[in-house]
Amino acid sequence: MSFAEYVWTLCQRALSPSGLPGLSYALNPYQGCEHGCLYCYSPSLLGDKALAQRWGSLIRVKENVAEKLQEDLRKKRRGQVGVGTVTDPYQPLEARLGLTRRCLELLSAYRFPVSIQTKSPLVLRDLDLLRQGRFDVGFTLTAVNESARSLEPKAPSPEARLQALESLASEGVETWIFLGPIIPFVNDDEANLSCIVKAAASTKSSLIYDRLRLHPGVLESLRVFLEEVKPSLAEQVPRLLSTRSAYWREVEGKIQKLCRWEGVRCEPAFPPRPRESKLLNY
Ligand code: SF4
């Protein structure tokens, strides 16, 4: 049962410039996300105090997003659109409202290439559009063990995501897996990584991986969970996850080795740039 509050709101524009690798624009039909993952750093990017305080239970619905998207598409140069960069575009409310669906129809009509990221099998509803090409779909798979239930309390199960991934891939849709965020002692074990890499191999998906990003509020949100996994883990995590740490180098090496072994194309979510190791060293 859902206890989220939905607030209808108007947006000024639908497409915003994206700084994410490979994306020209970001499109998020909703602000806030009912999946309420403990590790989510979107609240810190949105600059909305109420949303951050009630992440997972307050959703703002951009009721005019499709109209604004049409205006944007008439004016903007064609470029890759990331759908769901700070929200899940297929969170539960989408089944009733179809805002994401309407946006995808427009993007398809204007021939913009689209990259969707989700945790929900609801994306299969839009298979008729996705089959037409110019769309790729990424599923986030964080953990296939019990940790997923605590970390992603209201998201569809990893099993459901894997099934949906297989369905899309078998229909010829280009698919990828987002493996992350990697959290020390939670989902960095060989069994978990190997299971997810094998899923990528069997569906011919590429794989993008990332470590936990410690944006403001993330460690606080995870603290109780981490302390239950291992006493003092919350204190150790920032050091373990710095880009130059031996721990992260080892985990990256493990993922890359598994991918080579399984013939999976993989890359980090944020490829290092010169001097970036300093900047990202939390
Ligand atoms: S599904 Fe994505 S956007 Fe939604 S809470 Fe989880 S990490 Fe954040």
Q: Could you describe the 3D structure shown?
A:
The chain is globular, with a radius of gyration of 18 Å. It has a single domain, classed as TIM Barrel, CATH 3.20.20.70. The model is unreliable at 275-282 (pLDDT under 50). The chain has helices spanning 42-46, 49-53, 65-75, 94-97, 99-109, 127-130, 147-151, 158-170, 190-202, 218-229, 233-240, 246-262, 276-279, and strands at residues 5-9, 15-17, 25-27, 30-31, 58-62, 81-83, 114-118, 135-141, 174-182, 206-211, 266-268. It contains 13 helices and eleven strands. The chain is an alpha/beta fold and 282 residues long. It has an eight-stranded mixed sheet with strand order 2-3-6-7-8-9-10-11. Helix 6 (127-130) links the parallel strand 7 (114-118) and strand 8 (135-141). Helix 3 (65-75) packs parallel to helix 5 (99-109). Bound molecules: iron/sulfur cluster (SF4).
Give the tags.
282 residues; eight-stranded mixed β-sheet; three-stranded mixed β-sheet; 13 helices; 11 strands; 18% strand; disordered C terminus
Spell out the blueprint of helices and strands:
Elements: E1 5-9, E2 15-17, E3 25-27, E4 30-31, H1 42-46, H2 49-53, E5 58-62, H3 65-75, E6 81-83, H4 94-97, H5 99-109, E7 114-118, H6 127-130, E8 135-141, H7 147-151, H8 158-170, E9 174-182, H9 190-202, E10 206-211, H10 218-229, H11 233-240, H12 246-262, E11 266-268, H13 276-279
Parallel strand pairs: 1-5, 3-6, 6-7, 7-8, 8-9, 9-10, 10-11
Antiparallel strand pairs: 2-3, 4-5
Helix pairs in contact: 3-5, 9-12
